[in-house]
Each structure stands twice: as structure tokens, then as C-alpha cells.
Amino acid sequence: MRKPVVSSRVFQSLPCLHSFHTSSNLEKVVAGRVKVSKGEKPVTYEKANFPFQIGVRKSWNSHHTGNLEDEDGAAERTLEDFFIRKFIDGTLHQCLATDLIIKRRANRIFLVAIMLRRLPPQKFYFLIGYTEELLSHWFKCPVKMEVQIVDEKPIYKWL
């Protein structure tokens, strides 16, 4: 078999498909900030403070000693926190008014949440007990939920 002969004229007539483009850097930080629009929008305390203000005006959403020097298990705790947040978001669907705060103290996990009154009190009590029991069984340590129920989302300021 013979290979087809391709002349160099064919390549010269094709448009350049691999060109290199550059543009100036925007230097604009928009991640984690609430977009200001026309009209007023209610904003909670968590979203009113910018991400660079964590540790200054705003606290962390997960409190544990895994980030200290010479401590192991920070990645495992982060994965556990992600699982806890997803589990509670699925169990108490659309009931969380603010972000969930996870505090770890001496082999105990405390879950602090502000929830909206969307279910009857009996269902809230059942789901809180259900969550505490299952998470205690999975993580092999006592889990306690501290819940406050409100009628509407707490508004920190209007943007």
C-alpha cells in the first residue's frame, strides 16, 4: 500500500486551529460574595460576611483540633463533616435556616442548627432523635443536636 502524498499547499490554505490567546488578569474576587441587585435582598449573618473575614468577624462552621500542629486526621474529619451535612440536609429537608455548625469536644459531636418550623413538633423530635442515634452508631461516639426552631429565616441585613 502506498501512503497518500499531501502537499504543503494544503496545510498553508487551512486556517490555524491552534492559536495562543492572552488577556489581562481581572483580579476580581467574586467567590463567596452575595451579588447585589436592584431591590433589597435579605441576607443571613453567614452570607453577609466575606470569606476572608472567617476568624475575624465570623467563626468556622466546624470546630475541632485536627488543624493544630502535629495533629492527624484533618482529612477524615472534613469528610465526616461533609457526610454529616449531607445526611442532615437529606433528613431534615428544607428545614435548615442557617448553616450547620459542627463542634467536636472530647469524643463528642455537637450539631448546632437553626431550623424553620415546617414540620409538626412530633416529627422534629423524632427526626432529631433518629439523627442522633444513627450518627452515634456510625461514628462510634455520642452525637447531640442543639436545635432552635424559628418561624422565618433570621435576617442580618438587607442588600
TrEMBL record:
Alphabetic keyword roster: Mitochondrion, Ribonucleoprotein, Ribosomal protein, Transit peptide
Cell compartment(s), UniProt: Mitochondrion
Keyword presence, Mitochondrion: yes
InterPro entries noted in UniProt: Ribosomal_uS3m
Alphabetical list of Pfam families matching this protein: MRP-S24
Gene Ontology BP annotations: translation
A cellular-component GO term for this protein: mitochondrion
Family: Belongs to the universal ribosomal protein uS3 family.
PANTHER family assigned: MITOCHONDRIAL 28S RIBOSOMAL PROTEIN S24 (PTHR21244), SMALL RIBOSOMAL SUBUNIT PROTEIN US3M (PTHR21244:SF1)
Name the record gives this protein: 28S ribosomal protein S24, mitochondrial
